[in-house]
Amino acid sequence: MTKRARIVGVGRYVPEHVMTNDDLEAIVDTSDEWITDRTGIRERRIAADHESTSSMGAEAARRALASAGLTGQDIDLVVCGTCTADHSFPAAATLIQHEIGAPGAAAFDVNAACNGFMSALSVATQFIASGQSTRVMVVGSEVYSRILDWTDRGTCVLFGDGAGAVIVEATPEGERGSVDALLLRSDGSQAGLLYANGPATPGDAAAREAKVVMNGAAVFKHAVVAMAEASAEVVAQAGYSVEDIDLVVPHQANRRIITALADRLGLPMEKVFLNLHKYGNTSSASIPIALAEAVAEGRLKAGDRVLLAAFGGGLSWGAMTLEWGGVRHPEAATADASIART
Ligand code: ACO
């Protein structure tokens, strides 16, 4: 029998170091006014030299375990959404699996750029639906600061580092709180709009540096249309109407993209969770950080209908509707002094 999946734990970790828009003025020809007005971003976190996608992901995962009242022993699969893994291999997920003490767990990464967490979460729900897994750690973790071109004002002001994690488990018979509908799509014909060259890219040495290259205006248009269509489709698939949605937790790329999405869906911004002013675009980490923060702020309660929507390079996008089941120890997800300051 197909099993349904629900989120029972959330956690987030962001590095201590804050880079403000004023700090960026000293690096590229930009201004706090331009960045705030065009994106909504005021500051972002930058990983310290000793931090990595796996170390931040492991910390977020430990906090998710605490919020669920579980240990690593309870986890049978670790999936990490990332496009900035510590190494080409091993996968960041295997390093996280070791760090959280999950000896029985399988582990692998999913790379779908900023749609990485949604893709990883979709994998988790399918492993649970098939009965292959009973409890999955889903992580989104990124260190974009290491792949940005810090001379390109069109991209370097947008991104930040951080990690988030959720634990997904099979919903016991008769209990509420589960993923209702999900949709993933891609369009590789538009790959040139947003990419980072990696070591496998043919060409000269300069082209092989792993720097983010983006056509911002084109990505903007695709993002709004794709996320709005995917969102409308999952809401319909789940049998809800848009008015039934209690909270939208979108990928935190740009406040204007999110406002346009809410407009298209006919949803008031009070129902949309926003924290990009504090972290910028953390790619795969943005939705799980936002979910953990929504729990910490009391914005999510058991029974709430939640819409997730993400978009990224690929192009790749997706949406999901779920009923919020509630985490057992929400206070554990809030235990982070570095986050409390903003
Ligand atoms: N500071 C000051 N001026 C700037 C900056 C900056 N940081 N960046 C660009 N400008 C200038 C441009 O040079 C241009 O000047 P010009 O008119 O003299 O040529 C002007 O501002 C307008 O540039 P646009 O690119 O048209 O600005 P736009 O309003 O489109 O905003 C932005 C740019 C913020 C990048 C927007 O297009 C956007 O958010 N796009 C989506 C990006 C995104 O979300 N990407 C991530 C997807 S997720 C993933 O997979 C990584």
Supply database-style keywords.
342 residues; alpha/beta; Peroxisomal Thiolase, Chain A, domain 1; five-stranded mixed beta sheet; four-stranded mixed beta sheet; 12 helices; 13 strands; globular; disordered C terminus; binds acetyl coenzyme *A
Explain what this protein looks like in three dimensions.
There is one protein chain. With 342 residues, the chain is an alpha/beta fold. The chain has one domain (1-333): Thiolase/Chalcone synthase (Peroxisomal Thiolase, Chain A, domain 1, 3-Layer(aba) Sandwich), CATH 3.40.47.10. It has twelve helices and 13 strands. The strands form four sheets. Strands 1-7-6-4-5 form a five-stranded mixed sheet, with helices on both faces. The site of acetyl coenzyme *A has 24 residues, from helix 2, helix 6 and helix 7.
